[in-house]
Amino acid sequence: MSSRPGFTLLSRGLHWLMAALILAMLFIGVAMVASLADYHALVSLHEPLGILILALVVIRLANRLLHPAPPLPGHLPRWQRLAAKASHVALYGLMLAMPLIGWAMLSAAGYPIALWGSLHLPPILPHDAMVYAALRQAHTVLAYLLFATISAHLAAALMHALIHRDGVFESMAPWRAPKGRNEEPPAVVPVP
Amino acid sequence: MADGTTPAKLGAGATMSRLAVIGAAVAAMAGGFAYAGGWLSPGTLTPARLVDQFERDNGVHAGFRRNHAKGVCVGGFFEGSGEASGLSKAQIFARGRVPVIGRFALAGGQPYAADAAVTVRSMALRFTLPDGEEWRTGMNDIPVFAVSTPQGFYDQLVASRPDAATGKPDPARMKAFLDRHPETARAVAAIKAATPSSGFADSTFNSLDAFRFVNADGVSTPVRWATVPVGPATSETPAQTAQTDKNYLFDALIAAIGQHPLQWRLVVTIGQPGDPTDDATIAWPAGRRTVDAGTLTIDHIEGEATGPCRDLNFDPLVLPAGIEPSDDPLLSARSAAYAQSFTRRAGEARQPSAVATPARTEGQNS
């Protein structure tokens, strides 16, 4: 067995940058709705950060299509492979859906969508309070679902790192040198 | 593994301790999330608890704002005079006209309450700037606000909760609140000393909170603003006070707009160093320099059922570049509480307004 193939440097960079941004976003979001004193400052951070994450997830999805994830090691049971696959689909789906719902929800509420200074985004839905109410609810429910999925993802990653020690965690580790990247494990050495 | 070897099998003890590390990491993240969300501090005042208190005091009136529940939609335009453009780079202060949607309302959470001269009147406005920016502001016809902090506001709500037996606030509780909040006692005295005008059309509406204007050079100036009626203000007459029409203030406004457009000047007051920007209970000294930023013309009125204002949140911190919040703690709290009220009513079925407004009434000269 050779070194397991890892994710490309760009893939790992996007993963850890977005991990930090999305966790910050979830904490900012849950704190801002409960805060009187810091509400405005946190909202002013939440909205442009959401748009940044949306831009990054589009880049990341394209990168993922160009550079698929390395295969999971063969020893994993079928249910764990399915769980890994499903959680990755959920993570990508939620990463994309959350900022789009946020943008749509502000549009339906009739708020201007401020980025920085006088820079604004256009609305993507017409002004409709009932649609706003439904999207606002969805934004909350999906935020909790995203947090739960990230927690499960973290637990699984740590299981690979500390219990299985099968190289799955190292394939995405930020410190990993891109040694063996995209290399197929050598087949049986041909005997002359 | 990276070196191609199979890792040594972990002992039961090592497995358990490593599982504990994983559990602790996930629990720490979840705990931090719960802490950030305020779930570990149930005594803290939140936007939801503030709006809950409004609902306890007034009942839940589906589809209505939780405060300033009784109101009508109006519309018109604002023409900048250019005189404030040296103070703020906001486009609205350049010479030119921008459309305005607004709402006149009475303070309190009762959408069907009878109009009364002593009830605080409000004017809320949304200016739509040419590049998609907006300026939203909510103003009141009182000289100062009654409280300086969100907690003070909440305490006042609790103290003024109607008593089940009398339907009126308990005077002893109110007195205890005012004893604890001398700033409110002073502000209430100033509010009571001001004579209300005869109606919405001749009221002056004040921003109460301070803001900051920032000009093209980055110079920041503390300001407050007011819309001052162009026509003369008259005091409420005894005949008006004895009105039996429970919507007399709104009916007079509808009649006035039917005759001709109503106009207010947007007057900006410039704070001097030392003037408090973080305390809405304190008026700035008289004689501060003012700038006439332009003229607001309200030329039509419409009920909330069909008008555009019900589904707008007049969040006072929707500001264009060139206007910024001050250090007044009420501003962020207002923004948060308005958003909470907006989210609650947005998902509720509409109910008819108490104010019977024709579908749309326009001034004859508009």
UniProtKB/TrEMBL annotation, chain A:
Topology within the bilayer: Multi-pass membrane protein
Transmembrane segments: 14-37, 49-66, 86-106, 141-163
Signal peptide: none
Keyword hit for Iron: yes
Keywords assigned: Cell membrane, Electron transport, Heme, Iron, Membrane, Metal-binding, Transmembrane, Transmembrane helix, Transport
Ranges where the Cytochrome b561 bacterial/Ni-hydrogenase domain occurs: 7-174
Matches recorded under InterPro entries: Cyt_b561_bac/Ni-Hgenase, Cytochrome_b561_oxidase, Di-haem_cyt_TM
Localization, UniProt: Cell membrane
Keyword Cell membrane: yes
Named cofactor requirement(s): heme b
One Pfam family linked to the record: Ni_hydr_CYTB
Domain of life: Bacteria
PANTHER family, alphabetized: BLL0291 PROTEIN, CYTOCHROME B561
Family: Belongs to the cytochrome b561 family.
Name of the protein this chain belongs to: Cytochrome b561
Highest classification ranks of the organism: Bacteria, Pseudomonadati, Pseudomonadota, Alphaproteobacteria, Hyphomicrobiales
UniProtKB/TrEMBL annotation, chain B:
Domain Catalase core: residue ranges: 28-365
Its EC number(s): 1.11.1.-
Region Disordered, annotated ranges: 342-366
Recorded superkingdom: Bacteria
InterPro entries in UniProt: Catalase, Catalase_core, Catalase_sf, Catalase_SrpA-type_pred
Keywords for the protein's UniProt record, in alphabetical order: Heme, Iron, Membrane, Metal-binding, Oxidoreductase, Peroxidase, Transmembrane, Transmembrane helix
EC supergroup of this enzyme: oxidoreductase
Any Pfam family hit: Catalase
Membrane-crossing segments per the record: 19-40
Residues making up the signal peptide according to the UniProt record: none
UniProt KW Oxidoreductase keyword: yes
Obligatory cofactor(s): heme
A GO MF label: catalase activity
Function of the molecule: Has an organic peroxide-dependent peroxidase activity.
Recorded family membership: Belongs to the catalase family.
Protein's recorded name: Catalase-related peroxidase
Gene source species: Labrys monachus
